[in-house]
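(Protein data)
===
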Amino acid sequence: MRSFNAADEGALLLSILQESTSEVLVFDADSLRIVQANPAAARNLQYRLKALQKLTPLDLLAPHDGRSFNTLLALLKDGKKRRTALNVHYRRLDGTRYPVEARLFYSNDREQPVFICIANDVSLREATRQALEHSASDLRAIVAHIPGMAFQVMQKHGAPPTLRYVSEQSAQLLGIKATALRTNPERFFKLILKEDRDDYLARLAEASGVHLGFNWEGRLWMKDWKDVKWVTIRVSQRTSADGTLWDGIMLNVTHSKLAEAEIWRSRAQLSALAAHVEAAKEQERLNLAREVHDDLGGNLTAIKIGLSWLMKHLPPEQTKLIERTAYLDSVVDQTFEAAHRIASNLRPAELDFGIVAAIRWQLQRFGRNTDIATRFSAPDEPVPLDPDAAIAVFRIVQEALTNVAKHARATRVKLKLVREADSLLVTLTDNGRGIQPGRSDKGRHAFGLLGMSERATALGGELAVQPAKRQGTQVSLRIPLSAPAPVAAK
């Protein structure tokens, strides 16, 4: 086997130099003129070898990098350093620059001492670093502008959970600095209003004792501010190689809660006003019905008696007077019928006999006026409804039947009253064209549906309007009864 001599070693080193992806520059120690460069250096710098040999490394560096470069060369040449490293930017032939991580060596083993510079392009690494810095900066900016506190809970395998991160908004939201809250997360629990602590503890038990590791909404008592603050916690859980992470955000929702409370208060006031208006209207209808029945009916009765007496005392030969008197008598009869109809429309007398009788009368009248077939089922025992509830149920059914007559194009209506343990269920079903959201007549009877819903709410009940199982529309009304249903004897 042939021995490995100096010539072979030189050839091997030259081969390695040619194939290396690192940029290698060899330059004279005195003139700093480049005497050799490998293909990687020529390719990255965009120069031919002959062109590079007319330059010095300082021609390839930015001015501020050149000064530090000269300083290091002097240290190497004086023997104060054997090798050194530095980060600089190379300038290509087209003027663009890219960062390199370079190592410098000084060699005086030959007649012509040289410096050797081995550099690696770190553009990708630098771009990644800058991207990460920008991402972190952007993330911090986003978190800083969140109207709440961002946090992260970490639970490593076999270890208790810890509050890994808390944003600086902790001080503004909770009056607790981020570092203090991270050290002792239970300080948050001490802020919770006593009335809301049981709910928080129940959720905490479900979350295996991980504070801030679950969705929750509640009130905090801010002692220093002497104020109650509503907060909501929203958390997402994920698994990592180290354990379980909870990424969360805590928001101040006091303003929205106060606005929501104000809306509910306003709605309650509007409902109370609507109920008062309806009660006043019903009372007025009752008064009018009584006046029509009593005053108008009494006067008509007196006229009827007077006309009857007149008929008996008119001479037989006064035929025209007899005919005129008979005509007036028939007008009185018609007026009697009109007065009765008006009084019934204002307040049906059947309501005095209970809601079942009133609805049965109403359904029979509806069938006569519309030629729509009706079917009615109701409990045999009386339904314990107070007068206000009875008239409200009657009006809801009346409006529902009016909607059927005007809009449903139905041929059949089924009305069912079911008395349950503590409520009354009224169900009206038709076989018409059903609920059609795009219908052009929606606006014309929307107020009727709204009025039905308001009446139901005033009774403490619920009203639902939905498509029937097979065809048409079903209106369901459920209201609480004033007294529980009697238990049947065994």
User: Anything to note?
Assistant: The chain has four domains: 18-127, 146-252, 259-346, 354-480. Residues 30 and 113 are 8 Å apart (CA to CA). Residues 254-313 form the longest helix (60 residues). The first strand starts at residue 23 and ends at 28.
